[in-house]
Amino acid sequence: MSILVIGLHVLIAIFFAVHAIRSRQQVPWLLILFMIPLLGALLYYVGVYLPGWRRERRDRKSAAGAAQAFDPVRALHDAQAAFDFAPTAHNQMRLANAQLQAGDAEAAAATFGAFLQGAFANDPDIRLGAARATLACGRHAEAIAHLEDLRRADPDYRPEQTTLLLARALAGVGRPADARAEFEAAVKRHGSFEAKAEFAIWAAQAREFQLAHRLQNQLHSTMDRWDRHTHAMNLPLIRRLEAAFAEVPRHR
User: Transmembrane region positions (predicted)?
Assistant: First the structure.
């Protein structure tokens, strides 16, 4: 009986030792596992194995949630069903955002536009949504009007997003100097990856190649430190960036 118990302890120690090697734990764990198999296995389980298992489980759930969030067709279907069942303001807002996320900018612009005709005409979230939708439709002057209304009503409302959208809309109506000033203001004030990426996209399209390459180098330096989840979250913007730089001459 004692031999079976000892054998079981050794098998448990071997199991955790294999885990320690694969997960690149420190060498002393191997010594502890084999010098005191039962106590060593217990310490390893509590100190390394269990926390790692919980972390992996949490990461899997996070990845699954992100995958669902990145399914615009399903999100649109769910939003439409919710709105059809209960056409509340919340569900209408959800539907408009889902339409925009799914690439139906015209439908999103119409849904946001209907909002602006009623009691929510002064709601900044809806005004910003209308600006995003009309910009996606190529109706740049209309987007500018929405964004300028936002700034007049509340200059501190989502300043980075408002500035970047306004910069893109100004570029769309052929006002490059004004567009550049807005991009520069966004980068100076916020310095985010999104601000630099949008500025780089504009620079590439405006044939400001020296500026485009300088920003591109900064963006690559940031992306080199990302994990896969962060990269996936920013994938739509990265694809726009890559498309803009497809026609840019290589930096020498």
Answer: 30-50
Residue 68, helix vs strand vs coil: helix
Q: Would you say how long the chain is, in residues?
A: 252
Global pTM exceeds 0.90: no
Q: Is residue 202 in a domain?
A: no
β strands within the chain, DSSP E: none
CA 229: distance to chain centroid? 9
Of the pLDDT bands very low, low, confident and very high (cuts 50, 70, 90), residue 212 is: very high
Q: Is residue 151 a part of any domain in this protein?
A: no
Contact 249, 212 (CB under 8 A): no
- In the chain, how many domains are there? 1
**pLDDT one-digit tens code per residue, 11-51:** 666 665 666 655 555 556 556 656 666 666 666 666 666 56
Instruction: Flag whether 26 is in a domain.
Output: yes
Which range marks the domain in which residue 32 is found?
2-68
Domain-embedded: residue 123: no
